[in-house]
Write a sequence for this structure.
């Protein structure tokens, strides 16, 4: 049995490699805030959502597949949580009750396996009842196939057959087995036999002709004899113990994978509930194929900032369709860096099949998301800030591919304006030639205006500032400004008279 709730045709691999720039993404986009909101203190949920978000998809069909499954989860959240809690409880009980791994004796392995299978049967019956009662309420391809599989595989005949087998495997009436004599009269070819039919009438059982048998009894204190008989018994049930153990492994692997795949959606439910309490909107993105150059949105906000402040955040609207470069300038503390984070977060959330933090959102898929943010001074004093920035840029270039996205936040400002502008211009020009989408927050006026003057394939956004110096935290289209209005901050701190 397979869950197939993350992919149409394969399991979700929790051991897949994370992107090489994982730590930079987590730091620059403040992803730990998002992960913690989704996990709510659960270490396993944290591991799953972190892997899912950072291991984005480049397949439109799979993204839409996950979106449909998530829509079902949002509509039937209590049912999904019940199934998830059921898998968690089963796995935890298995950890507490499974001792077979510490035993080399087939009888011990068989005993523990039978106990676990009885517990599994109760959980499978519960899952079957959920399927029978609620399958019609789910519309996604993933859940429809999941519940159809449950109803097909777990019918009444299956449960009856398993229950009968488990009853026989307890050997309440002893073990019936056969063996042959090998060299030196040593026992070989031990075979466990099916017990005789005990459903015959008492009269037939008493008066029917019985085959000749030879019996012997052990003295109660014959420890050596008891040990020998136990060894013979283990030889007879060895193959059965292995088979039952494999059946146990098969069922536990199903529930383990079901738990893993549902963990992603439970994380999404946790996030959705917190955003709903704040009053922030969500929408399901419309993904476009790799390289189509689509990027438009309404009410896009920084989900991590909303979660931190626990209040609604100013959203932004823009249409950058057919554009490869977005340059953001304007007033200090006007929301530029927050907007840049919202771009990166929404791209990651879309490409793992989640909803987006926006009223509407559409973007083409990205071959990889990279961030180049300013860093603090190197405390070891081994290299200057500009050298450090160029070193990180070199690492990005070594891993980037066409149709990737790079987010720059005040990069190359560690030197004078003219030199920084030229470095930025050459790097961005090279990236654009290789069909890489660029978002650039900058105070480098010469750099920004060089692309504006060329009428480049770009859109230019400015952090809005009102006449009295107040920030609206909205970004509007407009020509790059030569000032970031740093005097507004100075006046706010020290007062105009000073």
């Amino acid at each position: 049995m397979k869950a197939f709730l993350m992919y149409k045709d394969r399991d979700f691999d929790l051991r897949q490699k994370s992107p090489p720039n994982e730590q930079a993404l987590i730091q620059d986009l403040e992803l730990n805030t998002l992960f913690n909101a989704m996990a709510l203190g659960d270490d396993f949920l944290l591991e799953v959502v972190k892997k899912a978000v950072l291991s984005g998809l480049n397949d439109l069909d799979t993204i839409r597949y996950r979106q449909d499954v998530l829509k079902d989860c949002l509509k039937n959240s209590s049912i999904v949580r019940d199934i998830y809690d059921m898998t968690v409880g089963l796995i935890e009980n298995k950890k507490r009750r499974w001792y077979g791994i510490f035993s080399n004796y087939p009888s011990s392995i068989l005993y523990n396996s039978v106990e676990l299978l009885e517990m599994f049967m109760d959980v499978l019956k519960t899952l079957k009842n959920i399927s029978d009662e609620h399958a019609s309420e789910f519309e996604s391809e993933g859940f429809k196939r999941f519940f159809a599989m449950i109803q097909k595989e777990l019918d009444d005949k299956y449960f009856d057959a398993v229950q009968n087998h488990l009853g026989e495997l307890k050997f309440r009436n002893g073990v019936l087995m056969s063996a042959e004599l090998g060299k030196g009269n040593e026992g070989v070819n031990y075979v466990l036999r099916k017990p005789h039919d005990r459903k015959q009438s008492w009269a037939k059982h008493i008066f029917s002709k019985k085959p000749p048998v030879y019996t012997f009894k052990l003295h109660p204190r014959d420890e050596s004899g008891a040990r020998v008989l136990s060894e013979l018994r283990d030889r007879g049930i060895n193959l059965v113990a292995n088979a039952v153990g494999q059946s146990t492994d098969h069922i536990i692997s199903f529930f383990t994978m079901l738990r893993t795949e549902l963990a992603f959606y439970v994380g999404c439910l946790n996030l959705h509930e917190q955003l709903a309490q704040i009053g922030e909107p969500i929408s399901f993105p419309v993904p476009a194929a790799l390289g189509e150059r689509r990027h438009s949105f309404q009410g896009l906000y920084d989900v991590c900032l909303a979660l931190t402040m626990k209040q609604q955040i100013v959203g932004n609207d823009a249409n950058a369709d057919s554009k490869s470069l977005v340059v953001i300038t304007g007033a200090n503390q006007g929301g530029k860096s927050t907007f840049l984070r919202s771009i990166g977060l929404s791209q990651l959330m879309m490409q793992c099949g989640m909803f987006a933090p926006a009223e509407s959102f559409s973007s083409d898929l990205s071959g990889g998301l990279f961030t180049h943010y300013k860093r603090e001074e190197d405390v070891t004093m081994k290299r200057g800030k500009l050298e450090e920035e160029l070193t990180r840029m070199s690492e990005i270039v070594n891993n980037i591919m066409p149709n990737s996205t790079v987010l720059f936040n005040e990069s190359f400002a560690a030197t004078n304006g003219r030199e920084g502008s030229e470095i930025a211009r050459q790097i961005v020009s090279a990236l654009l030639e290789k069909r890489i989408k660029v978002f650039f927050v900058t105070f480098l006026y010469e750099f920004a205006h060089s692309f504006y003057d060329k009428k480049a394939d770009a859109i230019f956004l400015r952090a809005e500032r009102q006449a009295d110096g107040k920030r609206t935290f909205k970004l509007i289209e407009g020509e790059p400004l030569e000032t970031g209005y740093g005097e507004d901050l100075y006046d706010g701190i020290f007062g105009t008279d000073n």
About this structure: The chain is about 50% helix and 15% strand. The mean pLDDT is 86. The two ends are 74 Å apart (CA to CA).
